[in-house]
């Protein structure tokens, strides 16, 4: 159908122009014969009955297993996974879910995005646009109370009959389809012999816009005269940081945020030649604002918001442009807008108050559609941040780009995987990669494009963190998109305070650092940064990055402008590595038992604040110690030392020496089957040994990854205990405690730990931590099918929540579900950092598979493996190879630009390879 649309769009384009030009804008067109009264079916793709193994990693086959009750998975026209959403949320009780503020929540969300913004596509048929350059900002936030209906839907009128294409407001007799795809959402609505297909996707690259492609089909044998209205709202809503967002606190917080608009008026402008209308936010004369580059909690330099008609047939006259919300909706609302019913003339809204924002955009086209014919329109909706103009719109008027440019955006950037043991992973792996890549936000202050943690933290609280999450996400991004891994690392370095060398817990607004009330001194962030930086450098060989300069926070602001911590002499990336280590060693320090201190939290945000009757928070901050911090340091420091030794042998030696001091203290914390959790203090300042009465998952996996801590028998005992006590009875992976919540930031580390010593368990645990598993176990929960929260309860499948954070209100778009799955997959496949490079060593489970990431690919057969490494930059990369566990390596063969080389001997075998950006190194392994 898609190829036919392009042809029909151009054949009918001239007819549309003639119709628009010939009709007097003040007179309604002559009524057509109209609808013929017949019933026309709305074709829906078949749901696959089987789940066949794909022919190759990139050639997916349909697999509807694990679809849940809300629709089904299929393969779309571009060969990628798509979720066909079929539930009628208006009548089906399965649509409801736990929500702190909405008694009857029915909205289910899908994420689209590019390297700058996120589009939030709703099952009800509209799309919100959110960006984060200078703080979390919704440009068209849904607020039905004040008639802000977001946009991304159409209104049609013919012979006095008016209908809305959004399922929330469409006629009861209308038929609809909704497709959540990789890079797009498609809404198809059919009524009275007209089928309208609207596909919305983010503009390519980092452009600040969404593209709306509209295809209108006349299914009848009659000529049709249709008036089409493209609607997008203007409702700028800054989600400034608010620590409480549950129930009444969220309601009050929304009002507080809306009041920020009182500083501005709205000015609507129209460029008929460019076919673009926009709203500027004009600062009121009595309002003073900080400099645009200043650190600030709110953005008082708003970007203009625009809508443009860009298809060749999309010509809009002034009388066909509607910008006054009150006049357009009148008393009819989104089902029967008065301006549409009356075929009223449009007008530009007079400049006025931005509070409650009465501006909106609707563009009308009067279309004459021949029998059985198809017409196409295209619109671009977005905003223009500093440094951008509207010239990029021209590319979307080019007919060669009119068919799904999102294909160019994602298809060759995803991860792919096929294994006979789990054919559904062929769908799931690229979908996880898509979720990760479509989450990106560009941050002006930090000069980086990053993958935020997302979910309720970002979209409700209005802040993002912690750097431990950005660090963990960067690990799989190294293999998926190394430039985004660098972006995350730049963010962490930009969040390092010049004042004391500490990394802040979170950020919001324009570069404003936030300790979230209780996290002024988190103790683990240096270690996470060092671990992720080491993996990036080892896997890419990007030593030039070590010389790049990243200003310490606050950069050019206040009394610390241009300054840096006393630990360093410059602000290169290598200096940031040095700063993180010296801050860990000299500020975080070791405690009374020789372990790294816990301060006001390690991975667990609340560990020193919980159980107030048992522990004293202030005394624990002063003297408490963290077992997972110590374990992780023993993983990260030796690896980082190997990587940076050519650039700073002295620093590498100091890292090794500090790690050596941690070894005996951490060994004492192993209790025979598991590690204790921490040392805290009671009210009498006496030490309390936490986690000695049962296994706590937080303090286990890094004790395996730092392989020097335990002997083989102890590792087996620990992994067996995790499996028996936590993992084997949970349908979605190991929870923190028996029957508790599963958090991928820890549970996928268990996958990694298993992969090092018990590959079959690693494989089975990975499979249990899939959307497929969650949807199979709880098919009536919409979250957990195509996206999820950062933690699910293992007995109910519900997202966790708290008094402050209503995760249940936004239980999707948290990247831990996606990034950590990809990290677990890489480790199960046998790809991990090793010494100064990466080691490729199939684990043996599954026995055969094919994996492809943009940086590295690996295909494993019975007695051999092969793959490619595609250089992300110029430099020297070390590649190491080994046979699966229990097998003997015969040889490894490398094919480079310099020739072929055969490596023999006991594994792992390593070789330094000189590469240029884009150069492919091919390898084989035999055992």
Structural overview:
The chain is 25% helix and 24% strand. An eleven-stranded antiparallel sheet has the order 1-2-9-10-11-12-21-17-16-15-19. It has a seven-stranded antiparallel sheet with strand order 22-35-36-37-42-39-40. It is globular and about 85 Å long.
Strand element count: 42
Share in β-strands: 15-25%
The Rg value, from CA coordinates, equals 28 Å
Structural class: alpha+beta
Q: What gross morphology would you assign?
A: globular
Low-pLDDT runs of 5+ residues are 1-30
Number of helices: 20
Distance between the termini: 49 Å
Mean pLDDT: 93
Q: Describe the strand arrangement of the main beta sheet, using strand numbers.
A: 1-2-9-10-11-12-21-17-16-15-19
- What is the makeup of the main sheet? 11 strands, antiparallel
Write the layout of secondary structure elements.
Blueprint: H1 2-22, E1 71-75, E2 81-85, E3 109-113, E4 117-122, E5 127-131, E6 137-138, E7 151-158, E8 161-164, E9 175-181, E10 184-191, E11 194-202, E12 209-218, E13 224-233, E14 237-238, H2 248-258, E15 264-271, E16 276-283, E17 305-309, E18 321-324, H3 325-329, H4 338-341, E19 352-353, E20 359-369, E21 374-383, H5 406-410, E22 416-418, H6 425-437, E23 441-443, E24 448-450, H7 455-461, E25 464-465, H8 467-480, H9 482-494, E26 506-508, E27 512-514, H10 525-540, H11 573-588, H12 617-623, E28 625-626, H13 627-644, H14 649-667, E29 678-681, E30 687-690, H15 701-705, H16 712-727, E31 741-742, H17 744-757, H18 759-768, H19 771-777, E32 792-793, H20 816-829, E33 831-834, E34 837-840, E35 849-852, E36 857-860, E37 864-870, E38 875-881, E39 891-896, E40 899-903, E41 909-915, E42 920-926
Parallel strand pairs: 34-38
Antiparallel strand pairs: 1-2, 2-9, 3-4, 4-5, 5-6, 6-14, 7-8, 7-13, 9-10, 10-11, 11-12, 12-21, 13-20, 15-16, 15-19, 16-17, 17-21, 18-20, 22-35, 23-24, 25-26, 26-27, 28-29, 29-30, 31-32, 33-34, 35-36, 36-37, 37-42, 38-41, 39-40, 39-42
